[in-house]
Each structure stands twice: as C-alpha cells, then as structure tokens.
Hints:
By secondary structure, this protein is of the alpha+beta class. Among the domains are: 9-214, no CATH class; 253-421, no CATH class; 653-769, Serine Threonine Protein Phosphatase 5, Tetratricopeptide repeat (Alpha Horseshoe), CATH 1.25.40.10. Helices cover 42% and strands 10% of the residues. Strand 8 and strand 9 form a beta hairpin. Helix 14 (410-416) runs antiparallel to helix 16 (431-442) and helix 27 (621-633) runs parallel beside helix 29 (655-667). The protein is globular, with a radius of gyration of 28 Å. The chain starts with 17 loop residues before the first strand and ends with a helix.
Amino acid sequence: xxxxxxxxTSQAPVAPLATSEQQPSRLPxxxxxxAAASYVGASRCQSCHESEFRAWNGSHHQLAMxxxxxxxxxxxxxxxxxxxxxxxxxxxxxxxxxxxxxTDGPDGKLSDYPISxxxxxxxxxxxxxxxxxxxxxxxPIAWDARPKSEGGQRWxxxxxxxxxxxxDPLHWTGIYQNWALQCAECHSTNLRKGYDAASNxxxxxxxxxxxxxxxxxxxxxxxxxxxxxxxxxxxAQDDKGLPSLKSRWNEAWKFPAEGAKFAVRAQPADPAGxxxxxxxxxxxxxxxxxxxAGAVLEDSHRLAMLTAPxxxxxxxxxxxxxxxxxxxxxxxxxxxxxCMDCHEPHSQKLRAxxxxxCTRCHLASEFDVAKHHQHQAGGKGAQCVSCHMPSQNxxxxxxxxxxxxxxxxxxxSISLGSPNACTQCHTDKQPDWAATSMxxxxxxxxxxxxxxxxxxxxxxxxxxxxxxxxxxxxxxxAAPAIVRATAxxxxxxxxxxxxxxxxxxxxxDADPSVRIAALGMLAPVDPLNRVLGASALLSDPVLGVRIxxxxxxxxxxxxxxxxxxxxxxxxxxxxxxxxxxLEADWPSGNVNLGNLRLRQGRVDAAxxxxxxxxxxxxxxxxxxVNLADTWRQQGRESEAEKILRDGLVVLPRNxxxxxxxxxxxxxxxxxxxxxxxxxxxxxxxxDNARYAxxxxxxxxxxxxxxxxxxxxxxxxKRHPSDLEILSALISMNREAGDRxxxxxxxxxxxxxxxxxxxxxxxxxxxxxx
Length: 769
C-alpha cells in the first residue's frame, strides 16, 4: 500500500500542521545569504497600518485557508448527499459538532472523514482532510458558494466529466490531491513544505494559516525594529526594512494633452510591487522556498511558457494558468500598467467598477461609446472586459478573465483555431461572421496587424520550417519577453550550428525567462559551445538562470570548464539539487533528478530516482521510459523490457511505452513483435511524426515498401516539414525508381534547409546536374 493511500484519520495518528514565529531553515543558497528578518504576524502590522489591515480583513487572501468551524464552513453539512460516478457521499456533523464527510477512501470503500480546514471562500470552497504522514488531501467535491440565483448553494464535483476511482492518481486520496504538493504554497504565509523523502512524510509549517501581510511584503521584523526607532519626517531613501511595493497608481497616470486617447505613466513603477503577485498568480514550478519579496519570478520559480495545452496558439488562456503569463503578454504590461493600478492589493477589489476602471486611462469619449464597441449602451457587449478580457470557467464555476487584454482577432480563429471574444459571446455564430462584422465597423486594416500567435503556432506545427520566424520573434525588442522566451523554447528542437549567433545574443537578454530559454537552445550542441555560451550564466543574479546553466553543463568534465567557473558550477549544481530536493514529492522532480544523475554518470542514483518516481505515481510514463533507457545503456536489456512491460500493465494504451518497447524488441532482433509495437504507438498517437516515421522504417525493413511509402505519404500530409519523414520518402522513392517523387520531396527539404550542403548535393544528383 502506498503511504499516500492510507486509512482514514480516525484509524491512524496524524502529524499536525506546525506554526511558528521562528523562520524555518532555508535551502542552501550559497550565492546570497538568507535575510536576517523573521516573520512577526499580521497583528503586529495592524497598529500602524489600520486601513490596510481593515481592507485585508475579510478578503480572499485573509480567508484563503481557515480552521473548519461553524463560522468558516459554508457548505451544507446537514446530512446532505451528493452522487458522483456511482459513489454516494454524505456531508454531516458528528455528535460533538465536527464537520464530516462519508465518501470513498483509498480502498474504494465508504468511510467517515473529519474536515480539518476550509480552502478558499468564493465562488467555491474546498475542504482538507488529514491523513497519516502529515498529509492533507483536498476533497474534489466542493461547495458552490455563489447565490442560489446564480446556480450556487450546492455540492458539485471538480471533475464532472471524468471517471475517477480510488485507483486513479487524481482520486482525492492520491498524490495529485495532496495539499502540500499542489496548493499550500499560495494559501499560507511563510510556508515550508517539510517533505522528508526517506519516510515519505510531511511536517509542513507556516507562520500564518492564510495569505497575510508578509506573504507579499516579506518578513517584517526589521521593519518593526525600524518603526520603533524612526521619527517623522521619514527620509525617502531610508531603509525601512521592507522592499517598497508601491505603484503610485493614483498619481502616476496622466493624459498628456487635452483629447489624448491614452494616459501615460509619469515614471515606471518599481517592478517589485507587481513581482510580489507573480509567484502565486502564475502557472509555474517551484525552485526555492522563501524567495525575496518583490524579486523576479524566475528567482524562485520556473514560469510555464505559452505552449499547448496551457495556452491557445495565439497565447490566450486555455488551461488554468492563473493570470500572470497572460498579463505579461499584454500591451498594458508593456506600457507600465501594474496589477495594483487596477486591483487594490489588500482587499483585492477593483479600483473602480465596470468601464470606469478602464476609462481612467482610456479616453471615455473615444472608447466608451457605440462607435467603438458597436453594441447597445449599457449592455454586456458595451463592457470593455467582454471583448478584451473574455472569461473562461475553471474549477467548474470560477470565471477567470483573460488578462492578456487583447483586441479580438476572429481572423486568427480561422487560421489558428484559437477562440475570439465575439463568438465566445455569440455562440451561434462563426469566426468568419465576426471578422466580416469587424470589417464593416473598422475597415480591414486590423487584419494586417502582425500577431505573434501565427509564429508560435507555426513553431508547434511546422517544424524546422518555422525556425527563422521563431528566431526573429525571439530577438524582437517589440515583443513581450514571455513571447520571446516561448519562441526560443519552440526553436530548441531545431537549432543547428548556424543558430549559435542568435542563441548567444539571447543569452545576454535582460529578461531571465529569455536567458533560460536560450540556454535550452544550447542543449543539442557540442560541449565546447555549451561551455562558451553557458558558463558565464553560472553566476547569473537570478536563481532560475543559474540552475538551467548548471543542468546544461552537468555532464561536462571539470577539465573542460574554465578554472574560474568551476566553483560557480559547483555552487549552481548545489542550488539545482536543492530545487530538486524541494520537489522530491513530485514524480516529475524525481525524473529530473534521475536525468541529472545520468548526465553526471551516477547510474545507480539515476535508477533509484526513476524507481522512486514510479513508486510515487505508477502512471509516471517518463519514469518507465527513462529507466528502461538507463538499463539499455548498461546493456541490461532484460530489465529494460521488464520495466516497459510493467508500465504497459498499468497504461496499456500509452504510445510512448509501446514505442520504447518496439525499439527494444528491434535491438533484440524480434522484428515482427517490434513492428506490432510501433504500429500500436502510431495508432495511439497519430499526431506524433516520429512514431509514424519509425513504423514506416520497420515496415520497409520487413520488405513492405509499398505500405511504408503509403504511411509516409500520409504522415507527410500531416507533418509537411518533418525532415525525417522527408528523408525516408526521398530514400524509398529513389530505391523504388520513382525519381520524380524523390526529387519533389528533396526540393521541399532544400526549402527547409537552404544552407545544408548535403541536401544541395542530393538535389543536384536527382536533377541530373
């Protein structure tokens, strides 16, 4: 039995959450010593900051997590029942007033569980249940806190369309519903996960149960000390013991002249204010705990790029991405708008309601009129957010506006398949209707505006053909940094020696996300060029950049690292290992650790890491594949085959496992069995060009050239820029005597690789020159 699938709390002791006024120990960060300040609690702030405290009290931050009491629990626990996929759950109170739920446990049987904490408050509230090993699991049956008139005041399931039983890792008792793993960092102040890998247990601590003052401002003891001694008037340059997070929202924005359409900011806001929001309001992974208040996100976290499935091809939100990655794309952000210009940070309320918020900076007579929005005044279509911030529901009932604040582009919906605000509202219409309507209102010039979505979509669909456009976008000073970093990320599979100059330029970029992506562009190149490009970034001021550089150079011998950089590499590797240790409860964190150990030549440690990932999640596909490949490198094919077949018992329909097994069987000389596995992989993942190519090669090797060519032609239609497929088509058609077909595919290859001498020579031969 897995330790995260234990018995109900009534049958086993539970490690309580620990709270402390003392600052927990930090992970080692040798580049910068930890701050001396400690956490003092929101109550210490109240005496001097009464208005801010009053605004915060009752806010979503203040109510982010609470003890489950009659005052905090919103759900119906009066013997209310809820049915989901054949499981009848009941919400009730025990004889002593404890809130309880009877639902399916880790063994699939109904058991009674006491509610320990509430999680969130509106528009839904979830509940945490204590399990052995310091775990708190999030119940996926949530309470809809909206008014009944809006469909609320009911129990509902967060995965209404999925069948999730007790064997699924997404079951509420499983690994991915673990509070400390998934949620805790952003719902409490000064949280330390406290995961112990050896015992697979948690001793999680926090200073305050909710999102309090020091979550954003940082530990305040030094500020309290300053306040006890300082006397007015206070000098602006005084070190008050806390970073300044002010945005000057109420005075910074002015219309430069009478009739000007847009207000401008008098001077840029200190980015620390907005950075304090990013760590929790973004789709990201964690690199370190206790990051410095106001520091750039990449100094403590790794931001998700604008790629599928999280984003649509043009960068609009798709999965839950928590606002930050969207806002970083916006013209608002590029022109100096901060979160606090629109949101009061303590209450989280808007600075103004409706269009009045927008017309603080956008001239009302120009934009809040029918000639602009083309809708009836006072209606939904006349609201700025309807067109520029269309909402999408997450967690079933939580409507989240898209903070990329974009102009609707129904023409991109036609070419890219991305949504647009027009047809999201007019659901009975098509994008071409919306585009034609906009032509009538605004002329056709709007269609000519270039949009980075076309290039990002090409990067995901056109293979190496998109490389020049991706490099151009990545280096464009006019594009938002997150867009440039995404372009560089999409370019990574197609880099070649000719892209090194562009890569080196991106390594010097001012934005850390671009530098991180540029380091990824160095991964396929030779060790010398990796060292030349990456070694300087081992001492980068941003943790995320140092970690990426250390990972990139982990397999380079000391003798090839400049002597002046060796200490920096060692320090950065220690930081990387600390980050991986922090993610040791994640299967993906263990896969990353295994990959690092492989690059370091520490095979036994790599095997242990991959095995641990499988222990944590038996459906961790990457761990099976990487472990099998590790065994292969050691010549232990029987162990490799066993682990792949073990994975297929758990995941019989996984294409990656079938493909890996096919490669193994090919090495064993079992070509017929291998072909069967390749065929299954291609069938299960029809969009994977590599799997179609490998199956075609296997068919050709089996003497089935006609079948192979038919498969390759179909794959070429789906992936017209895939070089492996083109190469196979050229070779097989040439072998079959179809010189015209081979020449046609060779010309396509020459378009994709115009500077490749071998392609030029092949084309010359086929043309008879």
